[in-house]
């Protein structure tokens, strides 16, 4: 609930800015990874920013860092979204793996560039921290067998960078 809140809040911040410049954002698609196996899974779709905001507040509440051993760490990454503009919803913005782009002539390239610069930079920082938090389970699948917090799952020194970005984006 810590890295998922960070990554979703970063997306919300830049999607809000994009919406202010271009028009209402709809059909927001994410993928996510767990820090246990780092396998990317196609994730949830949100109909608009209001639904995304509600999801963040409901399912990824602000929690104390001391509870990190009690919750899974997920990293959400934005895959695509559409913009209602010029009487059409066919203004798809999507990632090609290196950045966001669109084939729609209704979307200003300056907005895409600003989105890429901000979102990609913040997510790169978050991704870097996420991949360094190595799960050190004493017992395989210890969450199923041991009371939460009894055995530390993450080395304390790897959580220092996480605390910094959590304070910045929570």
Written description of the protein model:
With 170 residues, this protein is an alpha+beta fold. It has one domain (3-169). 41% of the residues lie in helices and 25% in strands. It has five helices and five strands. The chain has helices at residues 3-22, 49-59, 109-132, 142-145, 159-169, and strands spanning 24-34, 40-48, 74-85, 88-95, 100-102. A five-stranded antiparallel sheet has the order 2-1-3-4-5. Helix 1 (3-22) runs antiparallel to helix 2. The longest helix has 24 residues, at 109-132. The termini are close together.
In the sheet with the most strands, the strands line up as 2-1-3-4-5
Number of domains: 1
Mean pLDDT: 87
Q: Please tell me what the overall shape is.
A: elongated
Name the poorly predicted regions: none
User: How many beta-strand runs?
Assistant: 5
Termini separation comes to: 10 Å
SSE order: HEEHEEEHHH
Structural class: alpha+beta
Integer-rounded radius of gyration: 17 Å
The count of helical stretches stands at 5
